[in-house]
Amino acid sequence: MKIVDKTKDKKEEQWQLGDVLKDNNGTVGLIVQDRMQGYHLINVTDNSIFDNEYDTLTDLQTDIRNLWHKVNAKLVIE
Question: Cα–Cα 20 to 30 A to 66, which of 12, 21, 30, 33?
Answer without folding.
Answer: 33
